[in-house]
Known about the structure:
Layout: H1 2-6, E1 25-26, E2 29-32, E3 35-38, E4 43-54, E5 57-67, H2 71-85, H3 97-112, H4 115-126, H5 130-158, E6 162-164, E7 167-175, E8 178-182, H6 190-201, E9 205-209, H7 222-228, E10 234-236, H8 244-250, E11 256-260, H9 263-272, E12 280-284, E13 289-293, H10 299-311, E14 321-327, H11 331-343, E15 346-347, E16 355-357, H12 365-378, E17 382-383, E18 391-392, E19 395-396, E20 399-402, H13 409-412, E21 419-425, H14 428-437, E22 440-441, E23 443-447, H15 451-461, E24 467-470, E25 486-487, E26 490-491, H16 496-502, E27 504-512, H17 515-526
Parallel strand pairs: 1-5, 8-9, 8-11, 9-10, 11-12, 13-14, 13-23, 14-21, 15-16, 20-21, 23-24
Antiparallel strand pairs: 2-3, 4-5, 6-7, 7-27, 12-26, 17-20, 18-19, 22-25
Helix pairs in contact: 2-8, 3-5, 3-7, 4-5, 5-6, 6-16, 10-11
Pfam family, one: Aldedh
Family: Belongs to the aldehyde dehydrogenase family.
Protein name: NADP-dependent glyceraldehyde-3-phosphate dehydrogenase
Amino acid sequence: MNRLLDSLFPTADNIPDTWRLEAPLEQRDYLVNGQLKRWDGPLATVRSPVWLKQADGEQQVVLGSAPLLDADTALTALDAAVQAYDKGRGAWPTMRVAERIQHVESFLARMREQRQAVVKLLMWEIGKNLKDSEKEFDRTCDYIVDTINALKDLDRRSSRFELEQGTLGQIRRAPLGVALCMGPYNYPLNETFTTLIPALIMGNTVVFKPAKFGVLLIRPLLEAFRDSFPPGVINVIYGRGRETVSALMASGLVDVFAFIGTHKAASDLKKLHPRPHRLRAALGLDAKNPGIVLPQVDLDNAVEEAVTGALSFNGQRCTALKILFVHEDVVEVFLDKFQRKLAALKPGMPWEPGVALTPLPEPGKVDYLDGLVADATAKGARVINEGGGQSRGSFFYPALLYPVNHEMRVYHEEQFGPLVPVVPYRDLQTVIDYVLDSDYGQQLSLFGNDPATIGSLVDTFANQVGRININAQCQRGPDTYPFNGRKNSAEGTLSVHDALRVFSIRTLVATKFQEANKALISEIIRNRQSSFLTTDYIF
Length: 539
């Protein structure tokens, strides 16, 4: 392990030309009211999780800098969004659906041109490997296409009139107002755009603040945002959330709050809004997803899914398996197979072929994980995989902890990193109680092949979590499936279809079914005198 860590970080000459950095990027641009504005104030230094070997030792790479906007500047972006919405009378919220779709398609075409630039920054900024960085970019583009198609389908169904009890009506979806969209650092493109794009395409105006890590990768898209949407429809700000976002929420002018992060941060921000009953929220929050391995089980599959579920992108996923309950009858064999699978995972730099384990972007993360390991080992657990828990700079080699119990911090805390706690159990009720008593309720995974047991557990957990995975790891996709959670794990449901509904409201135009009214409605539609009241069919 020492040799591995000694050779982990490269010299500058070892980096392939395709992925080599140019000079550090000093970004001072932000987007407000259709203009790229220059910020002449203080900047935040952007550091990479990648370190480079230098003559005097290993040094962390400085990628560049990003604007530290103040509250007043952030409020100019909010003002632009408010003016563009104009209490629902602006050009964007009153635009025909087909025209809004054209704007989003224009943005998508421009976005695709920046694939390599964004993928490169994903690797350098958050340490995501090349394969997963490319997947995140492509999946985001696919999500935009799917969202467009879903809106077309929704609009087609809404284009007809309904007649009920002598009342003629048309029900269509209308925007909610000004949306504030914030995404997470682990999926700074994909998960951000799963709220940003639906918010825009449904006619809301948006203030968008990129994630705290993964901030520079939005820069290649700023011109595309500027050129693809009318002024004020999309505004991009930077800075510390405590200063900028707090001011936005306290203004009371935000109508929709889309946030992916911790439940504490979400609660603190929501409390700042002076009219919380008027605030719609779409929140993806913490999770402590358990994997439950039953005694009757295909262990090879359980181990394969558990390793991937616990350690994909170093376990830095809200959907990661963060604690494993394994029955005593199979735990020894499970651990042996798990260790062998783990040992086969290749550590290295994000651009290296086949790399699965990469450095961690969050400052202080290695120390936090060290603390969890120290707490667990002091209370009876062992790191049972060779080299587990060893670190170098921003890199932490995964630690398989066993046996874990309720006295340990890692039993309760969401580690959000390459730490795999395994809890042996004899009585299944102890596992059930863990799920019932947990503050979180996003997902869980069941591994077993006894129909009676699996069926009973599905019924037990269906009212506890948003998704139950059988013989499979926890995950978000496919994006057409609902993504939500209970308790402190989420508010609202996101999917390609659900997100369109989250960022809109059903609005009814109705009249008595009388000849004069029928003639009036017919003339409005025939002469296209309303963008909302229409029977257009979008192909």
